[in-house]
Amino acid sequence: MNDNPRPAEDDNDPIVAEVHAARQKLLEQYGGIEGYLRHVRELDAQRHARARDLAEQREAEEARTRITNVHCTDDCVVVTLADGRTISVPLVFYPRLLHATPHQRSNWQLAGGGYGIHWPDIDEDLSAEGLLRGAAQASTSVATRMPGKRVKRTRYIQTAKLIVAVDTEMVIPPSDPSEPCLEPETVALLRDIRQHAEAGDIPWLQSRGKVYQLIEATS
To answer: Would you call 157 helix, strand, or coil by DSSP?
Structure first.
């Protein structure tokens, strides 16, 4: 007896016939519907296991960039990470630190769960991720920086639930003083901030700027 009767008019429909044949082949491959459902559950379990492994790997990588110590020389900010690495970035990358006094530079505190640094006396915030990026660019960025006067501006990045206020450095090029612009690394930072804001990663955002949560109005 056929458990899956088909209307007679379907027999001449090539698409229906192809779908039916594919279904029969699938059921035969997995020994029936129960075998197929068991295969689907196994695939789901494998997918969840991979996602868990990736999450654990990401957490381990983040833990290695946790900051354990900070000090400034006359020329550089030097940061020690939990995995033993030392990051040294020229102070010229960070004008507030460059023009701060030794006492102001030495007055720092960890922020963002240990992934950021805050200097309260000069209201400066840096992150391990940003310092790593700055260290990688240190050999070339100073020489290739855009010419022009640098000015501080606060940029506001808004998502559905958050507003992030970030102090940025804009360049006023000599060729067109009326049109301040951003350097590539600043554009990349703002893009990272928007991505983390959309993900609701408040601790990460707090290590980069001031975070405000939007409150829905109630009637």
So the answer is: strand
